[in-house]
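COMPLEX REQUEST
Ligand: fe (ii) ion
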Amino acid sequence: MRFAVISDVHGNTMALDAVLDDIARQGVDATLCLGDHVSGPMDPAGAADRLMGLDGPTIRGNHDRWLVERIGKELDPVDRFAVMRMKSAHRAWLADLPATAVFNGEIFLCHGTPASDNNAWLDGWYQDRQMTLPAEESVVRAAEGVDYPVMLCGHTHIARSVRLRDGRQIINPGAVGMQLVHGSPDARYAIIERHNGRWRTDLRVVEYDHHAAAAQCVANGFSGWGEAIATGWSDADGLF
Ligand SMILES: [Fe+2]
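STATUS: Structure written out below.
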């Protein structure tokens, strides 16, 4: 079995199309998607249209939840942009997405950690452009009670593959549409494959026209995002 794992598209359809093309060339049995689908100043509706057609399970991220819960309340400018661009069918789709899912009885999907869509699992958020790596204890604690050989998470936009001492794996595919990886603006996703009873991970880097995506951000009034999408040099604070 061979699956693609995508996360954090953030409304970037140019990056998503490049990733979906790469997935089609790789050949997979299904594509799994880990949330934060539309919150970005590019093409939220186009991203939703594509993701609604995926053949694998899709869960919601923290931004997807906020878009549903906070309509009419305080939303940050990017989330407000996404709400304005989405159609009612897109909102209904987001509202129905689960926070977590189990696929094939052996793959657990969450956005942040099993317990929270807004906590980081395998790395800390950027602070002064420094990325922090967590202690083993905190990674293991968040995995307690999640009895699946493969656990997938997104949210931090940093691609990582971790094997716990008991053999379970945690994989973050990185972000399709919004890079926080210090100087690498390419799209990221993962392919996971079971081989001889073990799961192996291919963390993939996909080049796309990130300058065109950045131009969409600027044209829609979000120059800070344009800088982030064009260069990959960014911190998470201040973008939303
Ligand atoms: Fe997120």
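REMARKS: The chain is about 30% helix and 20% strand. The chain has a mean pLDDT of 93.
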